[in-house]
Every structure is written in C-alpha cells, then in structure tokens.
Amino acid sequence: MDDESLKLKDKVIIACMLFSGFAFVLPDSVNSVALYIAIPVAFLISLFGDNRRFDNHSFKTFLFLFAWLLISTLWSKYPDLAMVQNKQLLGVVLVSYIVGKNAYNKKMLPWMYGIWIAIFLSAVYHAKTHIIPNIEVGQVRLSDAKLNANMMGYYTFYLTFAIFILGEEIQKPALNKVFRLLFIGMIFISYFVAIITASRQILIIQIPLLVLLLYGRYLVGTSAKIRFAFLILVAITIFISKDLFFDTYDNSLLKERNEIEIGEDSRTKLIKDAFQVGMQHFYTGVGNGNYIKYSVSHRFSHNTYLELFANTGILGLSIYLYMLISYLKRQYWRYKITEDKTFLFFIIFFIVYCLYNFFYVFYPYQWLFAFFILVSSHSDSYFEETYYFLEEDDEEDYSITSP
Questions:
Q1: Which tens digits make up the pLDDT trace of 260-314?
Q2: Which of 2, 42, 112, 127 has its CA at a distance of 20 to 30 angstroms from the CA of residue 119?
Q3: Residue 164: which of 232, 230, 233, 110 has the closest Cα?
Q4: Helix, strand, coil share of the chain (percent; to 5)
C-alpha cells in the first residue's frame, strides 16, 4: 500500500473510510460521526475532487433499483419503516460510489479493500471485549445488540476475498507474500469463526470460496505434476490437523445446529413465507421495508431475492437479477478473450456472493452491498488499464484493435 503518490484528498478519503469501517460496532456516538460526517465528506471529495470517469454498469443499475425502492414508499402501508430503509439505502449509494470510483485509482484500490479488513478487525475487537468474556465459546452463539454470528460470517467472507485479491494486486514482494500467507491463514480463521459463532453459513460459504480461490491461484494452467503435488500437500495437512478440527467440532454447538433438519430450520419457514407474500403482491410488492409487518413471524426473510420480491414485486427483483447477470456476462467474456485469471477470481467472488444472498438481505446495508460494487469497479479498471487495446463494444462482443 504505497502512499507516496497519494494526494491529500486521497488520504482524507482513506482516513474517513477506514475510520467508518472500524466504527461500525463502536459506541453510537462514534458511529454517528462516521455515518454523518466521515462518509459524506469522503463522498463529496470523491464526487468533486477530480474528473475521473465513473461509469460502472452495476452501480448505475443499482441506482435504478434505488429509485424503484423509493417509489415503492408511496404504497407502503407502514411508511415509517420505508423511510428508515430509504435512509439506509442512501448510505449504500454513498459508500458504493466512494469505493467504486476510487477503485479506478490504482493507488487507492488496496485501501478500498482495506476498509473491509478494518470492519473485520472492529468486529473481532467488539467480540473479544464485549461478548466472548460473557459466553462459553463453542457452546453459546456469539451475539449481542451490535454484533451477531451472521455478521461475523459476512465479514469473514469479505475479509477472505480482500486478502486474496490484495495478494494478487500488490506488487511489492514482501507485502505480496504477507497477504498470500494471510490468505492461507483464513482457512483456520474461518473454522475458528464458524465454531465460536455456531454459524452453518460460514462452512457453506467459506469452504467453496477457499477451495475455488486456491484452485484458481495455484492449479489453473499448471501441469498435472504440480496439481498432484498440491493435492498431496493438502491431504497431508488435513491428516495432521484432523484430530484438532474434528474434536473441536464434535464438542461444539455448530455440530448440534448442523443436525437440524432443513424443513425444521427457521430460515426455510421465512423463505416460504416471503415467497407467498411476494406472489400475493406480485407486481408492486408491499412497499420498501414493509415485508416484516406481513411476515407471520414479523421477521425479515434473510434472503435478498425474496426480500426484494416481497417488498418491491417482480420489477425490483428483476432489476437486481439483471445487475448480477450483467456482471457475470462481463467477467465471463473478459476471461474468455484474455484468459486472465484475475477475471476468473471475479467470477468466483460472484458465485459465492450470489449464494450468500440466499442467507441474508444484502442490498439495504452499506458494508454488505458496497463490496460488490468495489469488485465490479476493480474489474472495470483492471480491464481498461491492462487491456486498453481491446474495445468492449457491448456485453457480448469484443473486438481487438491495434495497441
């Protein structure tokens, strides 16, 4: 993270965003400074500080969704709930714009990923000082009013990908090695977080994420001998550590929760209920943020797709799906034409992100959705800088011109 060429305005943006990331579970007085001062300052500097183009397709599509969510307030039976979520969505737009635009600056890009490292460290600090001293680790779920097990799972996912991509992006050999070693360490960190949170989501998300990223980094494009040697190394590692891993797992709440039948899980009931509400209000939904009042359990759906369907109808869901599909098409065609593994990593992120959207509602929360815009902008900036001699005529057609 070389800051020698960073301008003063860039340093202010970095300071504001790192502070905001770390402050999200700190006392309300501190978090309010982040929400109402630091983030708006970073947004205004990003907006007016330079004339760098910000033409991110995913962000522009989200603005259409934002507009439809605002419009849905008009038919909300509970407008107070809609206005609360409108306020949250404004924060999503601001943070997404900040990280998305600054991702086009190569010197700023690592710092933008660093925001989510700060968020994870903030969560660890809060858990260590306010939750873990009061619970029996592995037997009671990590949770309080500011931080719960699910949140630790989301930020573990983002931390993993941020560390991985920094291991690709940073060119300084020493730092590059540090982030690559940290990524290997995420295997153990992910397991530990899963145990202390008793969160099945972490296993469902982190295992495929880690496996796919390891495969992409070390095995794609390599010889059969290297692949075989890598698999042998993995097998030896598993054999050496299996007793520690399985003994801990067998005596944890996580094992008990994994034995619950899918049909009896509360999330299954929430999914069915949200789908029914969406079908009953197919075209317009019940209004932004209002589904919770229509839910039989008075809880939100814990599913991005069905939450949008219930709140905003088929149009809101379609806009979100269009944004995701458009992103995937861009990454696929960029990978196809360049055979650059970087775009494969962006595809892997997409697969896991879409999967995680089945377990929680991402779009109204700034730190959950903005990371998607950061990755999307990173792909755009990397393609434009590295393959400037390729013209991206449209989503499905690339033509090669002379460099």
A1: 555 556 778 888 999 999 999 999 999 999 999 999 888 889 899 999 999 999 9
A2: 2
A3: 110
A4: 75, 5, 20
Residues facing 392 on adjacent strands: 398
Q: What is the pTM of this model?
A: 0.90
d(CA 384, CA 45): 23
How many Å apart are CA 185 and CA 164, to the nearest integer? 11
Cα(67)–Cα(3) distance, integer angstroms: 37
State pLDDT tens for residues 135-168.
776 667 788 888 888 888 899 999 999 999 999 9
State CA 66 to chain mean position distance: 18
Looking at residue 193, its amino acid is: V
- Rounded to an integer, what distance in angstroms lies between the CA atom of residue 193 and that of residue 138? 10
Q: What DSSP assignment string belongs to 92-137?
A: HHHHHHHHHHHTTSTTTHHHHHHHHHHHHHHHHHHIIIIIGGGS-B
Per DSSP, what are the bridge partners of residue 140? 137
Gap between the Cα atoms of 41 and 29, Å rounded? 17
Residue 16 near residue 38, CB atoms below 8 Å: yes
What Å distances lie between residue 266 and 28, 142, 273, 359, CA to CA? 30, 18, 11, 12
